[in-house]
Amino acid sequence: MTLRKWILSILAISFAAISIALGFWQLRRLSARRHANALLAARRNAPEVELDSLPRDTAVAHFRRVHLRGIYDHEQEIILTLRGRNGSPGINILTPLLRANNDTAVLVNRGWIYSPDGMTADTRPWFEADTLNGAGFVETFPTKGPFAPANPARPRSFRRLNRAELLKAFPYPIANYYVVLTDSAQSSNVPPRVEAAPLDEGPHRNYAIQWFSFAAISIVGLVIFLRRT
Fold this sequence. Notes:
The chain is of the alpha/beta class. The chain has helices at 3-44, 58-61, 163-169, 204-228; strands spanning 49-50, 65-72, 78-80, 90-99, 102-114, 131-140, 157-158, 174-181. Strand 1 (49-50), helix 2 (58-61) and strand 2 form a beta-alpha-beta unit.
């Protein structure tokens, strides 16, 4: 066999081996995704618990359904920018909830409202009753950047909920998690609630099929080339 054939054979086999390895890597990611989805689905379907009963580990508390009781501090609320809904730009309103006998406030994502630029909005027309007695699910603050620096022109607007920056925005401590309110809207000034992200399997299965296909094409192409030459 000529040197040219040896080189092409080595390249084709190497490419096939790498593709197969990447295919199995995607299958492992699919398995991990399924395991995580099963865990989160179990938490979503578990009975509601009181906030003070949550585990201290936010990874364990993530997606747990909780009962909320307290008083909104509307004057200290913030907005989460660039939040789309059904193709429309908007923002999410997050309001601190003050609880009896507890000096740590909990941020409550009350829902989405339309904003033409997805960055600014007057939230005053969306003030709800001061007292909350409702339900929601626990979300965790992102821990990996990049985090955009605070904008002095919009000190209460955040692209991502960087807890280190959030602590500077409030006159009291805030919990190391926040809660997405799920109670249905009862009046016209209540923003549409934010729905939980779907627990899908992602693109890992399709990626695995693609990589295995590349490996098969590489090997079959090599065999055809060697036979013809």
